[in-house]
Amino acid sequence: MSATFDSNVSITVEVAFDSEPFATSQSFSDISQYVRYFDISRGRSNEMGEFRAGTISFSVSNQDNRFNPSQTTYFYDTANGRSKIQPLKQVKVSATYDGTTYVIFRGFLDSVPVKFLAEGADSIVTFTAIDAFRLFQNQTLQSVGWRLGRAGFSELGQTTKLGYVDTQELSSSRVSRILDSIGFPSALRDINTGTKQVIQQPITTNVLSALRECEVAENGQFFISREGKATFRNRAYKFTNTLSNTSQATFSNSGSDLPFVDVGLSFDDNEAINSYSWTRSGGTTQYIADSDSIQRFTALGSSVTTININDSDVTGIIQQKLSETAIPIIRLDSLQINPRQNTSIWQHALGRELGDRITVNITNTDGSTFSDELFIESVRHSVNASSQTWSWTLTLSPASSASWVLGQALLGVGTRFAYG
Description:
This protein is of the alpha+beta class. The chain is built from 8 helices and 26 strands. The protein has helices at 133-137, 171-181, 207-218, 237-240, 242-245, 291-297, 311-325, 346-351; strands spanning 3-4, 9-15, 29-30, 35-43, 52-61, 76-77, 82-83, 90-97, 100-111, 114-117, 122-130, 169-170, 189-191, 197-198, 221-224, 230-233, 250-252, 258-259, 262-266, 275-280, 286-289, 301-306, 331-337, 357-363, 369-384, 389-398. It has a 16-stranded mixed beta sheet that branches. The protein has a 3-stranded mixed beta sheet with strand order 13-16-15. It has a 3-stranded mixed beta sheet with strand order 21-20-22. Helix 2 (171-181) runs antiparallel to helix 3. The longest helix is centred in the last third of the chain and has 15 residues, at 311-325. The protein is globular and about 65 Å long. The chain starts with a strand and ends in a 22-residue tail after the last strand.
């Protein structure tokens, strides 16, 4: 049974206590009525960083001791004499607004600490869960294998061990091959067709590292979506997909758009790289730099080894990157929003995904204004059911076509070269 957050939104928090972690069909138990708060964090710190594992922390009332793994009354497997409250059980958090239900996190239980408060008069359990990056991190390509003939999610390393073998192929085909090799469900994938070929990868490579190597070789994106899907986007996605090349919402402090609570701007060299020295495995180092930027800000370098198949692919990637990162610009890098301020925000707070484009307009105290179009790089939901507070916080990066409304945009200050 979903719990009513306010008159507009209901929340459902579910844990699949009765299912094996990797079964295709999950039998979820609704524990929404016990939830006191939750905090979800997904994404990366900026457009140059790696996507991190998405996490959730949620606290539940434990006054009847039902969520204590040591008890034998609730969520207990009598046949096997063990608690069903175990790591890796799947977790799903959803919210419903205006008849539409949005999954805002899906992952796997990580830890189950039990706390006794007020000298034992109260008890809570604060579950933590991590998305599928946890599964990818825990094995290498060499270690994958599965039991044949079982419907549902494969059982790794059981009965039949099949060796991992790949060949030169598209980056997206490699991502699919790796996900196939660990039995990751096809229903939990969103794979965009790649544009770059990749070489064979050593079987000693960590699975998450192998997937990230495909992301780098494509100059694309690989992350776990809010719905728990392994998501791979090619290098052209942000310029060709409607959600990324067209602003999906406008926020401002003028009263004419969706409101925000707080906004953060920065102007430094933390997100600037003006010298790239990249080498494909077995290739020649490709070097490109912006001399003007180096003269003004000193050398800010990047050195990476890729799995591309030819040097020209590496050159094209670092040319694209240099055009985006050579000159530090004024950045609108964080935005905090209270969805309860305007019901029109809910569809965005619940439905927006990493990489979506939004617009932020700011009116300064002196009456001057500026505007920017931005990509969502990270999402955080901090929700307290008791006080009915919901904070939606975004980390942002400048979109390639962004412009500052300051009278006249200047190259490297208010505009960037568009990708071609």
